[in-house]
Specification:
It is a single chain. By secondary structure, this protein is mainly β. It has one domain. The protein is about 10% helix and about 55% strand. It contains 2 helices and 9 strands, in the order ββββββαβββα. A 6-stranded antiparallel β-sheet has the order 1-2-3-6-5-4, covered by helices on one side. Strand 2 and strand 3 form a beta hairpin. The protein is globular. About 15% of the residues are buried.
Length: about 120
């Protein structure tokens, strides 16, 4: 089931347990994707994260103590990305009727000098 709400479009594929949330605008051009653990992030040429796919979405929610049944009843889904000193904090705001869950996902980045030393 694919649904569009304002700026975001979303789809949960129960067979493959994947949640896709997209916010790419018509005037944007995609420049590439990166996979970080169970996330696939799609970037625009301006560096904005426009689309996110969560692999094994129900397992991820359950690991946080959140009932994964929300995925089958979504009425809205949004992405909030905040850059932090040591990486990025991504929130998936999922809504099913009156129930709203704010799902956090941290991506820690290491400085290049630190990676080279190791």
């Amino acid at each position: 089931m694919a649904i569009r709400t304002n700026e975001f479009r979303f789809m949960y594929d129960e067979n493959y347990d994947r949640l896709m949330i997209a916010s790419k605008r018509k005037d944007e051009v995609m420049s590439g994707s990166v996979r970080v653990l169970n996330l696939i992030l799609d970037f625009t040429t301006s560096g904005r994260i426009a689309n996110i796919e969560i692999l094994q979405a129900s397992k991820y929610l359950e690991s946080l103590g959140i009932n994964s049944d929300i995925l089958n009843n979504l009425t809205s889904a949004e992405i909030v990305v905040k850059q932090q000193r040591d990486g990025y904090l991504i929130y998936f705001v999922l809504q099913a009727g009156q129930k709203v869950e704010r799902i956090p996902y941290n991506i820690i980045t290491e400085p290049i000098a630190q990676v080279i030393k190791n």
